[in-house]
C-alpha cells in the first residue's frame, strides 16, 4: 500500500506543538520520519484528506487525542518475542536476581502487557515469582486496559507457544490460559505481582529502584537527546549490579551512561557496575 503524503514536514512540527500545548503529550523528541509516517497513516485510516482536517479534529475533539496517541506510539508486541532474549534471562540473569530478598522489575513501554506476562511466567518457572514485583508502565492508558484484562486473541497462541518453547519453556504453554471462543484469558495468578500504571518516559521521573529494567524497541523511535534523557532515568532507577535490557537495534554504546555498564549478553543486556 502506498503511504499517503498528506502531512508535510513543517506540519508535523505544528502538530507536535499543538498536542503538547493542548494536552501535555510531548512528542518533540520522537524521530520525525517515524512521526510523519504515522500521522500520514492516521489520515488514511480516519479518512482525513488534509492536514487542516486532522488538526481541527485533534484541537476540537478531546476524545480523539486518545486515538491519536495510540496510533503515534507504537504498540507492536508479542509474548516471548525474540526467544533467545528470554532464554538469556531464564538461564543467566534470573539466577543472579534470585539472591535478592525482593526482586523489582520494570517493564517500560509495556504496551498491551505481553512482555510483562512473559516475565511473570519466567519468574514462576524459576521459583522466584512469590518474591517479585513487576511494574508495567506505558504512556497510553488504553493499552494498559488490555494488559489488565489479560485477554488476547486465540490465533496468536500458536506463535506465542512456539516462542515460549524456544525460550526454554518447561510446560505446555496452554496451562497458563483458558481459551474461550476466539480469545484466551491468562491465569489470574500471573497478575498477582503485576502493577500496571501510566508513566511517560519523556517527562516523568523515577518512581522506584529496580534490579532489572526492560525497555525493548521503544527507544528506536526517539531522537538522540530523548534517548539520553531516558537512559539517565533508567540509570537513576537501577540499583548497582542491576541489569538493563534493550531491543535488538538499541544500544548503550556512545551514551553518557555507557561507562557505568558492561554488556553481559549478546542479547542486549547490560549490567550496572558497582562503583562503591
UniProtKB/TrEMBL annotation:
Q: Which ranges does the record mark as transmembrane?
A: none
The residues covered by the CheR-type methyltransferase domain are: 1-252
InterPro entries under this entry? Bact_Chemotaxis_MeTrfase, CheR_C, CheR_MeTrfase, CheR_N, SAM-dependent_MTases_sf
Pfam hit, one: CheR_N
In its UniProt entry, what is this protein called? Protein-glutamate O-methyltransferase CheR
This chain's source organism reads Chryseobacterium tagetis
Identify the taxonomic lineage of the organism of origin.
Bacteria, Pseudomonadati, Bacteroidota, Flavobacteriia, Flavobacteriales
Amino acid at each position: 500500500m502506498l503511504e499517503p503524503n498528506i502531512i508535510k514536514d513543517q506540519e508535523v512540527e505544528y502538530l507536535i506543538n499543538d498536542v503538547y500545548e493542548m494536552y501535555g503529550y510531548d512528542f518533540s523528541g520522537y524521530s520525525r520520519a517515524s512521526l510523519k509516517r504515522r500521522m500520514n497513516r492516521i489520515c488514511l485510516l480516519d479518512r482525513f484528506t488534509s492536514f487542516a482536517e486532522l488538526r481541527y479534529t485533534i484541537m476540537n475533539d478531546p476524545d480523539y487525542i486518545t486515538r491519536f496517541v495510540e496510533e503515534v506510539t507504537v504498540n507492536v508486541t508479542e509474548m516471548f518475542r525474540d526467544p533467545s532474549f528470554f532464554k538469556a534471562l531464564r538461564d543467566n540473569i534470573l539466577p543472579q536476581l534470585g539472591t535478592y530478598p525482593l526482586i523489582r522489575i520494570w517493564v517500560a513501554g509495556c504496551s498491551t502487557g505481553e512482555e510483562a506476562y512473559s516475565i511473570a511466567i519466567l519468574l514462576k518457572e524459576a521459583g522466584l515469582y512469590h518474591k517479585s514485583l513487576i511494574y508495567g508502565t506505558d504512556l497510553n492508558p488504553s493499552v494498559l486496559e488490555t494488559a489488565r484484562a489479560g485477554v488476547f486473541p486465540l490465533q496468536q497462541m500458536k506463535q506465542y507457544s512456539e516462542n515460549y518453547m524456544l525460550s526454554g519453556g518447561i510446560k505446555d504453554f496452554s496451562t497458563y490460559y483458558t481459551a474461550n471462543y476466539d480469545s484466551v484469558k491468562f491465569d489470574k495468578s500471573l497478575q498477582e505481582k503485576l502493577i500496571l500504571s501510566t508513566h511517560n518516559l519523556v517527562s516523568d521521573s523515577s518512581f522506584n529502584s529496580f534490579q532489572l529494567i526492560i525497555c525493548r524497541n521503544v527507544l528506536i523511535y526517539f531522537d538522540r537527546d530523548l534517548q539520553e534523557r531516558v537512559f539517565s532515568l533508567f540509570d537513576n532507577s537501577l540499583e548497582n549490579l542491576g541489569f538493563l535490557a534493550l531491543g535488538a537495534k538499541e544500544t548503550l554504546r556512545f551514551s553518557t551512561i555507557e561507562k557505568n555498564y558492561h554488556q553481559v549478553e549478546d542479547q542486549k543486556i547490560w549490567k550496572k557496575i558497582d562503583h562503591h
